[in-house]
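Thread: quick sanity check before group meeting

JM: Hey all, I'm pulling together slides for Thursday and realized we never actually wrote out the predicted structure for the chain we discussed last week. Dropping the sequence here so it's in one place. If anyone has concerns about the input, flag it before I start.
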Amino acid sequence: MLLAAVDLGSNSFRLEIGRVEGAQILRHNYWKETVRLAAGLDDHKRLSRKSIESACECLARMNERLRGMPGEVVRAVGTETLRTAANVDDFLLEAQHALGFPIEVISGREEARLIFEGCMHTLPPSDKRRLVVDIGGASTEIIVGRGFLADNAESFRVGCVSISLRFFRSGAIDRNGFRQAVVAASAEIEEAIDVFARGNWDEAFGSSGTVDAVSDILRAEGWTDGTITLDALQKLRQSLLVAGDAKRIKLAGMKSERQDVIAGGTAVLVAIFETLGVTEMRTAKGALRVGVLYDLLGRRESRDLRDASVDRLQARFAVDRVQAQRVERIASRLFEALQPQAAEADAKLLAWACALHELGFAISHSDYHKHGAYLMAHADVAGFSTSDQERLAELILGQRGNLKKIGAVLGDPVRAAKVLALRLAVILCHARRDVELPRHGLERTRNAVELSIDRNWLNGHPLTQHLLEEEATQWDRAGARLLLRPL
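JM (edit): ok, ran it. Output follows.
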C-alpha cells in the first residue's frame, strides 16, 4: 500500500510517497521545491498573485506524481504562512485545484506533534527524553517527548524566511543586524523556557531545512562531523559576517537555494542554543511529512488519534457520554437515510460532533451550543486540522436555534444533512432517556426534506411533536423546507 503526504511549508513544498511494510513506511518517492511562500505575504498579510501562481505551478507538478492515488491515502497540510494569510481561502481554492486533493491548514501545535512523530519513527528507539527543533520558513516548532509521545509541543512565529526578510532584507549581513535577529528570535521562544530548557530533556535533535543545511555546512567545512555545536555555530556566524552579503557567501556544503535564508536560519538556531541551553544537536530525518504518513497509517488501521482526542475532551469537560451516545446513534441513522452514499469521513465528523455537542455545558447551560462551538474552534485538538475543527464547530453551533447563523452551510447538501440529523437527534433525545425510533421515514424530495413519524407515537409524545413542528418552522425561516408528516 502507498501513502502520500504533501507539506506546504513556508519555505519549501515537499511531497513524500511511502510504501507500507508492516508497521514501517519506506520511502517510495520524494519531491521538493523551494517556493518561499512566506516571502509572498505583503504588509496586510495577503499572499501576492505571483506567490499563489508559483505555489500552484509547484502543486500541479506534484499532481503528476499523485495521479491515480485514491483520496483517502493522500493528505496535504499547510503550515504557518497559510495560518497567517488573510486570503488563505482564495489560495486554497486554486491550490486544491492544482494539486487535485484537499489541503488542510493545521495548527502550530498539531504541526509540532506531527514533526515529533515523524522524527521518532526515523530515530533509533530510546527511553530518553528528547528535544526536537524544526526551523521552518515562518515558524519554529519545539517539542519535548519520550517514545512517540510529545509531552510538550509549541510553535513559535519565527523562521528562516521571516527573520531573513526582517533583518537581512537587502542581503547585507552585519554584526548589529545579526545580533538583533538573535534577540528577536530569543524573545519569541523565551516565554517557553521553563518547558524546553535544559533539564527537561536528555538529548537534542533538529529536523528539516535549516538544521539539515547547517549540519551539511559544518561537515563540509570540517568543523564537526555534522553535529551542531555552539562553537561550530559561532564559526558559521563569523563566516557569514565576513561575507557581509548573502550573495558573497561561499560555504562548502551549502545549496544555492539556502543562500538567501541561511543567515536568518542560523540566527534562529543560535537563539535556540543560547536560550534553551543546548550544547549539541544532531539531525533527525522525517519531520512533518513522515509524521503525516504515520498519522494516515494510524487512521487506516483504526488507530485514529482523533478518536482519543475526542475522548479526552469529553473527560476534560465532563460531557455526559451516555447522552452523547444516544444522540449519535439516532443522528447516524438519520444521516444515512439522507445521504446513503456519504463518505466515511462525513459520517465520522458527525459522530464526533454528537460526542461533543454538549461540550459548552462546562461553561453554561445557557447558549451552550455557542460556548461549545467556540471551544471546538479554538482548542488545540491533536489529530484535527483547523478545517476539521471549523466543521465540527459549525455542527455544534447549528444543533439548535436559528439556522441563519450557519446559512452558508445549508447550500451544501451533505453539510446540511449533517446539521439536520444532529438537530433532529437532539430533539428526539431531549428527555435524556433511551429512545427507540418509531416507525418513520426521512427522505429528500426535489423541494424539501420529508420526515414521517408514526401518528400514535407522536400523540404519545406531545412535547417532542411540538419541538419537531418548531424545527420545521426554523428551516422554513432559513429558506429550506422540512415537512413533518404523521404516518
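AS: nice. The radius of gyration is 26 Å. The chain has a mean pLDDT of 93.
JM: adding both to the slides.
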